[in-house]
Request: fold
Amino acid sequence: DAKTTQPNSMESNEEEPVHLPCNHSTISGTDYIHWYRQLPSQGPEYVIHGLTSNVNNRMASLAIAEDRKSSTLILHRATLRDAAVYYCVMNFGNEKLTFGTGTRLTIIP
Amino acid sequence: NAGVTQTPKFQVLKTGQSMTLQCAQDMNHNSMYWYRQDPGMGLRLIYYSASEGTTDKGEVPNGYNVSRLNKREFSLRLESAAPSQTSVYFCASSEYHHFLGNTIYFGEGSWLTVV
Reply:
């Protein structure tokens, strides 16, 4: 499995953009880049995924480096409800999917 | 939409007791998982099932057994509970799609305390 590295914690002001980085230097050519988030006392939920190109959805944007060794999850306008732990996960096919410790995002009102 | 349902939500066990955590998914997914999450930690994979009738060990399988009863259900059994197994347990399921990879859907968690 590709190993990921994320900062343990980040803070952002409410209504400001947030950029959450992830390094995955051992990513293989077939690994998808997925992001999940875990709200307090809940199970993780899917946020966004990508392979090579940048991606947007209603929750966030995903910017993928040209060499694919890093990616950034972008929350365009953070709200208090975005306070969560964010996990960057590499996966392909039916692999055992492993999660790191993620980044705990705190939103400051 | 039910998605992934796991029971019980809360359980207190005495050391040495046994119990089974039940999990069911209604999305017709082939793959199912059991993870545990200790306070302030990330998720660690206990066991994994790629399809009905198959199971495989994850990072922390010791002290647990699993059964993939059918495509819908994947149970986790603690034969002799220990305080070190106090944790939140998450069941999950997924299906691989060519342009999506393997998107995982999680249950709400089961809070287990072993005293």
Notes: Chain A has a mean pLDDT of 89. Chain A touches chain B at residues 32, 34, 36, 41-46, 49, 51, 85, 87, 91-102 (CB under 8 Å). DSSP finds no helices and nine strands in chain A. The first strand of chain A starts at residue 9 and ends at 13.
